[in-house]
UniProtKB/TrEMBL annotation:
Chain residue ranges for the region called Disordered: 138-195
Reaction(s) catalysed (UniProt annotation): molybdopterin + ATP + H(+) = adenylyl-molybdopterin + diphosphate; adenylyl-molybdopterin + molybdate = Mo-molybdopterin + AMP + H(+)
Biased composition (Basic and acidic residues): 166-185
Any single Pfam family the record assigns to this protein: MoCF_biosynth
PROSITE patterns in the cross-refs: MOCF_BIOSYNTHESIS_2
Domain MoaB/Mog: 5-134, 397-548
Function: Catalyzes two steps in the biosynthesis of the molybdenum cofactor. In the first step, molybdopterin is adenylated. Subsequently, molybdate is inserted into adenylated molybdopterin and AMP is released.
Protein name in the entry: Gephyrin-like protein
Keywords: Magnesium, Metal-binding, Molybdenum, Molybdenum cofactor biosynthesis, Transferase
Length: 653
């Protein structure tokens, strides 16, 4: 048995209940359509948040009604809202300005209806057939259905004040009553602001401006930084695949280097106090493991190789260049007497035990990046460690999205676009030293996208589990730009931000799965589809996050000041133009003065991937508003002006 209560919110009706026409009209309507539903005493309350809250709480929590009609709700059911607006639009285009809400509190379904009896009836008529099912879901009668149904109020994200629908001129009651609302607009502070449209919103009802606040580049960096803390430490063998990892422990040497007194040169081990003269030559010593080394006594010398053990008794080595043979065996294979030209000092040309690296002393501190230059890996290898603790590097999934996107080599039908994003990003991620999972191309279809994304993120424990997911396309305002709602509503990803004040890359979207579990957290970079936007935002925002996850000591790409070779236009957004940097040395000094010249790589449209060809830097051109001369914005940056350049590569400097 369904129990219904109607709350009328009106100051006038509260003062004079006989003025309430909407309440009785709704009651009649429900009674005519749902004859088996019963009515509990509802309420007529003034337009006051606290009083409304008490009335609703009483009905939901004490009376346990199944359906209340009020101006408040706890969790939203946007599908009901869509149905109501659709119905009202048939009557008036102004309905697009209305803001009804629908949802649940506990097991009670709550919907708000317009104040006029006619509007209230029209709206209720539109949703009435769905209400019995909504009530079943609210009672949790089918958890599987609950999980997949678009009506599921638990699964459907709350919407913020900017998009919330409420007929009230003053919707502050909703704010105070709804726990699930969080109106924080701070991009870096944690409040969950689910802003994506419900996936089933008909095209005509979608927001015509992005609900995502346009955040600054700095705020985007701060937010990403907050969720890209170093991954856990793992013990890995000391070998070349350590490159790109960062030490998670202070490393001390297990052994002395060298482990024996070693000669630095090829020559003769001598007793320094013997001075110059002619000497009997003892058995030679080569650099070998498990070598037997002779002992020499005054008057004797022994031939030693660079790196070979110095015989006991000797305390210096004389280079072969400073000696000559006096007497040898007949076939020349054995030196018998050798003349040493000059005197040595004790210790000459000998590396003492542990003098390169002493056992027990620090080799590399925690936080050291193991580079491919060789020093860190070499030190670890020499130190005697065979395994070390390093931070895990993120595994990165790369997915292209778009019905128009086709593989290289595939026939290019009309409207098709070659997938340049995926190969480029895969190469960029690998080039930066991270493991890639190639996830292919996904269609702009919610179920297909959801399955692909969930599997990549391991939501359903797929083998393709990645730490970071890079997708391209589908994040702007288009009909089939589905990434934000699918990530949010079908994958449990919280969208941290959905627009950044940067060119290219405005719709850059970053989300997090498992926000409160630093160990199991997954980051999603939904990069814009335009090829330049995708690559530039990867280098500016994605790559630093990957490096941070790997505990990299300097996550951001380095910058240098660069002089523009030619004047460039400014935009309303800060712009990162692709450029070729050349290093110029002052002719006078050769080295003392070094400066970089930046040549912009032709037309900078974000679809023109060729603007990245040959580019080794991104030159930051400040937005028009930041460039004022005598109160007037300046539309260009002049030739010869110095700008900041983010260095992508130093090849060819
Ligand atoms: N009404 C508005 N429209 C657009 C806005 C806006 O603010 N309001 N922003 C524009 C900006 S800026 C960008 S950037 C793009 C971003 O678009 P999406 O991320 O939604 O990407 P798509 O629509 O899927 O594709 C855009 C473009 O890129 C091509 N593409 C997509 N994937 C690939 C790929 N793998 N390889 C090569 N090219 C690809 C796609 O065919 C489109 O031409 O939105 C603007 N619109
Ligand atoms: O920001 Mo879009 O990335 O300009 O083309
Ligand atoms: Mg688009």
């Amino acid at each position: 048995m369904v129990r219904v209560a109607i709350i009328t919110v009106s100051d006038t009706c509260h003062a004079e209940p006989s003025h309430d026409r909407s309440g009785p009209a709704l009651r009649d309507l429900i009674a005519s359509k749902q004859s088996d539903w019963t009515f509990l005493a509802g309420d007529i309350v003034p337009d006051d948040a606290d009083i409304i809250r008490r009335a609703v709480v009483r009905l939901c929590d004490e009376e346990k009604v199944d359906l209340a009609i009020s101006k408040v709700l706890e969790k939203e059911a946007p599908g009901l809202v869509v149905a109501m607006i659709t119905e009202s639009l048939k009557v008036t285009p102004l309905a697009s300005l209305s803001r009804p809400v629908a949802g649940v509190r506990g097991s009670t379904v709550i919907v708000t209806l317009p104040g006029s009896p006619k509007g209230a009836k029209e709206n209720l008529t539109a949703i009435l057939p769905a209400l019995p099912h909504a009530m079943q879901l609210a009672r949790g009668e089918s958890s599987r259905q609950l999980h997949t149904s678009p009506m599921n109020p638990v699964n459907v994200a709350p919407i913020s004040s900017t998009t919330s629908h409420d007929y009230s001129h003053n919707h502050s009651h909703d704010h105070s009553l709804s726990h699930s609302h969080d109106h924080s607009h701070s991009s870096s502070s944690g409040g969950h602001r689910a802003l994506a449209r419900p996936l089933d919103t008909p095209v005509a009802f979608r927001a015509r401006t992005s609900p995502y606040p346009m955040i600054s580049i700095a705020d985007a960096h701060r937010t990403i930084e907050q969720y890209s803390t170093a991954l856990d430490a793992v013990e890995l063998p000391v070998n070349p695949s350590l490159v790109g990892h960062v030490l998670a422990e202070d490393v001390f040497s297990v052994e002395d280097v060298p482990a024996y007194r070693a000669s630095i040169v090829d020559g003769y081990a001598v007793i320094a106090s013997d001075g110059a003269g002619e000497f009997q030559v003892s058995r030679p010593v080569t650099a070998e493991k498990d070598v037997q080394v002779p002992r020499i006594t005054p008057g004797q010398i022994a031939r030693v190789a660079s790196g070979a053990a110095v015989p006991e008794g000797a305390d210096a080595v004389v280079m072969v260049e400073y000696t000559e043979v006096v007497r040898a065996s007949q076939d020349g294979s054995l030196e018998e007497v050798v003349r040493v030209a000059g005197a040595s000092r004790s210790g000459d040309n000998i590396r003492e035990v542990g003098s390169d690296m002493a056992k027990g002393t620090p080799v590399l501190p925690k936080g050291t990046l193991i580079t491919n230059i060789g020093g860190e890996l070499g030190s670890l290898a020499a130190s005697g460690r065979s395994k070390v603790l390093v931070h895990r590097k993120p595994r990165v999934g790369v997915l292209s999205t778009g019905n128009e996107v086709v593989e290289i080599g595939e026939t290019l039908g009309f409207g098709a676009v070659r997938d340049s994003n995926r190969p480029t990003l895969i190469a960029a991620v690998r080039g930066a030293g991270f493991e890639v999972v190639d996830l292919g191309i996904a269609k702009d279809e919610p179920n297909h996208l959801a399955t692909t994304l969930r599997s990549a993120l391991g939501v359903d424990s797929s083998p393709h589990e990645v730490d970071v997911l890079l997708t391209t396309g589908g994040v702007s305002m288009g009909d089939l730009d589905l990434l934000k709602p699918v990530l949010e509503q079908r994958c449990g990803v919280e969208i941290l931000f959905g627009r950044v004040d940067v060119k290219p890359g405005k719709p850059l979207t970053v989300g997090v799965l498992g926000k409160d579990e630093p160990k199991g957290r997954k980051l999603v970079f939904a990069l814009p589809g335009n090829p330049v936007s995708a690559i530039v935002t990867f280098h500016l925002f994605g790559l630093p996050a990957l490096r941070r996850l790997a505990a990299h000591p300097s996550p951001h790409l380095p910058t240098v000041p660069a002089r523009l070779l030619h004047s460039v236009p400014t935009d309303s957004r800060p712009e990162y133009m692709r450029a070729r940097l050349r290093m110029i040395r002052s002719p006078a000094t050769g080295l003392a003065t070094v400066e970089w010249i930046a040549e912009i790589t032709g037309m900078q449209r974000s679809s023109r991937v060729a603007s990245l060809a040959g580019a080794n830097a991104l030159v930051r051109v400040s937005p028009r508003k930041e460039r004022e001369v005598e109160g007037k914005e300046v539309g260009r940056v002049g030739e010869g002006e110095v700008v900041e350049a983010v260095v992508l590569d130093t090849e060819g400097w």
